[in-house]
């Protein structure tokens, strides 16, 4: 009978076999692909939820601007001003007392503007006295992550409406707002046309 010493065989074995190497590589590849797919799916879901949050903020911004424009009034000392990135107009504003306990409505001025360096749309307001001096409260960011913003103004004419890139002293009969969000090729453009009541 021949005796085989296993310790001697193990001592002579200094490297892994090709089959062992292929097995390790296959297991590592499967684990790597699973991790990549999980991370890729997570990033896609996160990006989509971010896009939806920005769009939700834009819809809230449209509603807030519409509400302020419904409360617009004509005042001889507070004029409407605006261009493609900024709009201010006389409106009824809600003012808090200095202690923050009382809230009152008063005539004032509201301003919306787009700031390209921060990619955000801001709103600020002023009570009557501050509006006459053109002093506004600190701005409130309504929408962040905006790639573009454009305001268009329409004034009544004998035959339809006249377009203007700037708001004149008078209140326009309609304002068109265009907001761009997202990156190419998934860039989205949201538009809203807001009619302004002219019976003040």
The gist of it:
The chain is of the alpha+beta class and 200 residues long.
How many helical elements?
Answer: 3
Number of domains: 1
Total E-strand runs: 9
Mean pLDDT over the residues? 85
Report on this structure.
The longest helix is centred in the first third of the chain and has 53 residues, at 18-70. The protein has one domain. It is built from three helices and nine strands. It has helices at 6-12, 18-70, 128-132, and strands at residues 81-82, 86-96, 103-115, 120-127, 140-144, 146-157, 160-164, 174-181, 188-195. It has 200 residues and is an alpha+beta fold. Helices cover 32% and strands 36% of the residues. The mean pLDDT is 85.
Entry keywords:
single chain; 200 residues; alpha+beta; five-stranded antiparallel sheet; four-stranded antiparallel sheet; 3 helices; 32% helix; elongated
Question: How is the secondary structure organized here?
Answer:
Layout (H helix, E strand, L loop, with lengths): L5 H7 L5 H53 L10 E2 L3 E11 L6 E13 L4 E8 H5 L7 E5 L1 E12 L2 E5 L9 E8 L6 E8 L5
Antiparallel strand pairs: 1-2, 2-3, 3-4, 4-5, 6-7, 6-8, 8-9
